[in-house]
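Quick start: what a row looks like.
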Amino acid sequence: MENTQSKPTESSEANTVALPKPITVDSSLIRAAQLCQSTNHVRHCLNGISLTTDGQVQATNGHLMFVSDAGFQLTEGQTISIEGRLPRKGNAQIEWLSEDAGFITVSRPGGSHDDKHFYFTVVKGKWPDLSKVIPSNSPVANTGIQIASQYLKVAAKAFCRYSAITITNFSEDMSKPVMFAPKNPVHSHMASDSNPRIYVMQMKDR
């Protein structure tokens, strides 16, 4: 009698794409990055925040950018667009449900049960190398800087309006961005070693 049993197929597990492992990030860093991301940029990859392989949180809208060390590990960089604004205080656990989406659980300080949940989608496209824009030279005297006033408000929101902010200039001809950073990250509810900063492109005389 002929054997009509079908041949075994490849295991579905073999075709499963390995998802990034969950990571935990200071919620205040994600919130600050959200303030600097684009929401309707022609470069679609800028419509989200980047989680880099070297453990940084980055965001930019083409005029200002946020960069911070967060200490997580990823084998491949991810750019995500989050539904809603994360709270300033708490730890955000980021978990991928698929290649295209996932969710974030923000655990509030003190072990309260008031956790917040947010969904995100993965933004496709190559994230720009922001290290090419970040000044590498020594600061120069603040002889005068010119930036759009709206970005002062962004810095206040990102670093808490009660936190002292340092302003660093890297060029006398306004050719390089100005850096804003909290004098003490802890006062902004950020980890002391997170080194958060916002870079703002200067405006030439018009």
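That is the whole record. Residues 45 and 125 are 5 Å apart (CA to CA). Residues 1-14 have pLDDT under 50 and may be disordered.
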